[in-house]
Amino acid sequence: MPSSTIRISKESGNILREIAARERKSLQAVLDEAIEEYRRRRFLQEANKAYLMLKENSQNWKKEQEERKKWGDTLSDGERD
Question: Any idea where the domains of the chain sit in the sequence?
Fold first, then answer.
């Protein structure tokens, strides 16, 4: 796997080493997990922000609610999975 060299603060490096030692994982594994967690959190933050903006526009929010109802109706259409 290709790798890159990055610079982090001494404090962050110490924390990374502590976590890696405690969890018996490599520094790279801990850093990869932290980056993935950050990516997921940012994704959810952006999704929440988009929904808040949608809710602020009553006309668009009404359309959203109507579409959700249509999708919800398909759950009881009698078809099996």
Answer: 10-74
Is residue 64 within 8 Å of 54, Cβ to Cβ? yes
Q: At what angle do helices 27-56 and 10-23 cross, to 10 degrees?
A: 110
Instruction: Look at residue 78 in the predicted model and tell me its pLDDT.
Output: 64
Q: Find tokens 């999704």 and name the residue.
A: 47
pTM above 0.85, yes or no: no
Q: Kindly write down the DSSP assignment for every residue of 20-77, as one continuous string.
A: HHHHT--HHHHHHHHHHHHHHHHHHHHHHHHHHHHHHSHHHHHHHHHHHHHHHHGGGS
Listed in sequence order, the residues at least 6 apart from 3 whose beta carbon sits closer than 8 Å to its beta carbon are none
